[in-house]
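As a point of orientation, let us examine one representative protein, giving the amino acid sequence and backbone structure tokens.
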Amino acid sequence: MSSRAWQIESAQRVTAGRGRIVTEFFDTGASRSMPWRKRRQAAALLAAAAEPDRGFDAVVVGEFERAFAGGEARRIIDTLQGYGVQVWLPETDGPVDLTDPDHRALLMMLGHQSQREVLRARFRVRAAMAAQVREQGRHQGGRPPYGYQLVDAGPHLNKMHASWGRRRHRLEVDPVTAPHVRWIFARRLDGMSAAGIARGLNERRVPSPGVYDRVRNPHRPRAVWTLQTVAAILANPRYTGRQVWNRQFTDHREAVPGDKRSSLGPVRIWNPRDEWVICPDQTHPALVSDQDFTTAQEITARATPEDGQARRYALTGLLVCGTCGRRLAGHWVNGRPGYRCRHGHTSAHPASEDAPRWVYWAEARLVEDLTATHEALAELDDADDLAAYLTTRDMVVVCGRGTLTIEDTAGIQVDAPVAAADHGAAQTAAAVPAPAEPAISEAETPTPVARRPLRRPATRRSRMAKRRHAAENPTRSPKKRE
């Protein structure tokens, strides 16, 4: 806001004796690198310029670097001129003429200069923040981690900022939520899974972070503990009493690098651990010791089961639940691979009494039943051969409680019964009743439940991308966190 007065003064000098300023458009807190259509006042200016009775015939920019960066000026000027509105700049001492080579060269030079200033400012700010965390242990703003609260830490270290009334803040233990954080780490050290911890917190009716502090967590609509929330707490080194910064960065997902107009929306991405900035000294009370925190990370990062046996599920992504349409998940039981669908239920919450019964199939039994009852599969030896057969033909196996049906994903009938064997010439279907299930008469046959349209099985490239994302994002959550 402090620059508004001298920008208006600059615009008045340009228009002196040639016109007058009739209205103002001034964006507060908007980056120059942000496209005009994503700034509130700049977008309002473009909308007003498009109106036939706009009441002005020129736009005067007080300072180029405050309004444009990169090639944005050329695009905006061209758009406004299409509406019949001129753009005046102090550097041209009047209207910009895009047909003039000197004016085009000037715009290019000013755009690069403005972009360079953006990059320099970004580098200086990030370097200063890293030094403040590493050397001074300063809190850099944002929400306090669950278990802590922000308290006053005295005047700002910068005398000028202190004279403006700005204060420092530091983390202090929250007596209400800190015991829950200690309980989470204690249960993890006892070997409890993150989902089991979340379920225990929900059963004890402990308020989740989103419920406990709604003011700082408006983006968290869920009112319960989830596996991701518990995993985020277990992976946060700030609970050891040290200040940490740069754990995540914002990816604007620009289709054209550097062009924010092509952004698909910002998401938070985890930085590699060697890029985290950690203060070597404790700056606030610790809720967990260094040794216990390190042990908890080793439990989280365990790559293989305790028995050392590698667990492989050959049919992952090829089995679909006949009740809800979800993909069946791998489930290891009695030393053998199997697949199950819990219809959206997770271990973090108690099962609902009126929920449909889960679907479960052992891999060996599934392969045996399909190869025994389907002539085209008789020559297949194992689950790997079945997976290759289904993948090459773009098929899936629809699994019910006691029935198996092979269907073509391209022509699947969403409302069709799971055990139906006739799906038309474009599909191959085989209904396999489970030996253990009693026969059901026609009058007792339940009404089939509508399923969601199926997506094609994941390709090798998409599976590799998911593995990379899991390695970069250990808590598997896209939400912004401290």
Remarks:
- The longest helix spans residues 101-136.
- The domain at 4-119 is CATH 3.40.50 (Rossmann fold).
- Confidence is low (pLDDT under 50) at residues 411-457, 475-482.
